[in-house]
Amino acid sequence: MMGTGPTGASVLTSTYFDGVSNRRRPVTLALDGDLEISEGGSVVASWPYADLRTVDGREDMLRLRCVSALPLARLDVHDPAAETGIRARARFLDVEHDTAAQTRRIVAWSIAAVVSIAAIVLFGVPLLAERMVPLIPPSFERRLGDMADNEVRIIFRGRVCNDADGNAAFAKLVETLRQAGHANVTLQPAILASPIPNAFALPGGKIYLLNGLLQKANNPDEIAGVIAHEIGHVVHRDQTRMIIQNGGTSFLVGLLFGDITGSGAAIFATRSLFEASYSREAESNADAFAITTMHALGRSPAPMGELMFRITGAQGGRTIGILESHPLTEERLALMRREDRPADGPPLLSDAEWNALKSVCRLKTQK
Ligand SMILES: [Zn+2]
User: Fold this and answer.
1) Per DSSP, what are the bridge partners of residue 65?
2) CA distances from 151 to 23, 62, 132, 250 (A)
3) Which of residues 138 and 351 earns the better pLDDT score?
4) DSSP strand pairing (74-77 vs 12-17)
5) Which helix (H) or strand (E) holds 38?
6) How many angstroms separate the alpha carbon of residue 288 from the centre of ligand 1?
7) What spacing in Å lies between the alpha carbon of 226 and ligand 1's midpoint?
8) 323-346 pLDDT, tens per residue?
9) Are 231 and 177 in contact (CB under 8 A)?
10) What sections of 124-247 are H helices per DSSP?
11) How remote is the CA of residue 5 from the centroid of ligand 1, in Å?
12) Torsion-angle region of residue 151: left (phi > 0), alpha (psi -120 to 50) or beta?
């Protein structure tokens, strides 16, 4: 790196495209006054800082255009010192940037959809899902999650339990599990006032616990194991894989027609989340994640198995989310019991926190 600091006169190297030819021109920058671009000692362009805009596309450098220069002129700034200096001076660098970037992303994903549909025909869907999921950026996954989330809130009529102490206890539990599982994701936990004993996660990290399951739980470890399992699905991106795999074609077709914020794709996404089950392999992986996480906290995964068995034993029927996709609760219980360890870590919640969590959906606190 050749930078001498943000104001270093003319040793900040960059690459300039003049907007006429496609030649890469190695240039030096002077940051005082306007942004002065020099090649071989003579100034070839002078860009006012107010006219500078970032151009989306590269993570490893700052790519600039100038609204008062030729439309295709670009400046690639590789030097971190130069980038810092420019960012400090240019006030409108990211104006329009977000929406433009989003549009580009949607266009890119529409193209991906066309390729995908071709690939579905050629290779079959499961292979495609395996190949596509690693390519999907987290930002897109969050968008997918937001779409599904809208539908979830319609289905549950927005009945999110909003008792502050109960939610604080739940957030603490989820964060403890996230850290213990080394899950490098942002999680958004919420509890829904539904009598269905269930829990599920959406792409991008929204985690829902339904009050019905909470009320059936006898202690924090039972809930913790289930939530750890759901975090496992998020970390492994199983929801996204499932959407592509089970609902793939229609979902991608929706995307192709720019239906990304329309209800069609969203309803489809949610439906596939609810109606489709995770693969057995995904389930095993999520269980393994839950077991490792609980062990890391010095807690046993066995209570989770007990809770699930208690519920399916009582219910017996098909339902959605964690239960529908977990028909093998006896097998799971056996596994969790094999992984049972005496609890040598501190309790995950205090008695007061657990009581607050249990009453998070009290009527008087609902809106
Ligand atoms: Zn699962």
Assistant:
1) 53
2) 50, 38, 24, 17
3) 351
4) antiparallel
5) strand 35-39
6) 11
7) 9
8) 544 545 677 888 889 999 888 999
9) yes
10) 125-132, 138-155, 164-180, 211-216, 220-235, 238-246
11) 52
12) alpha
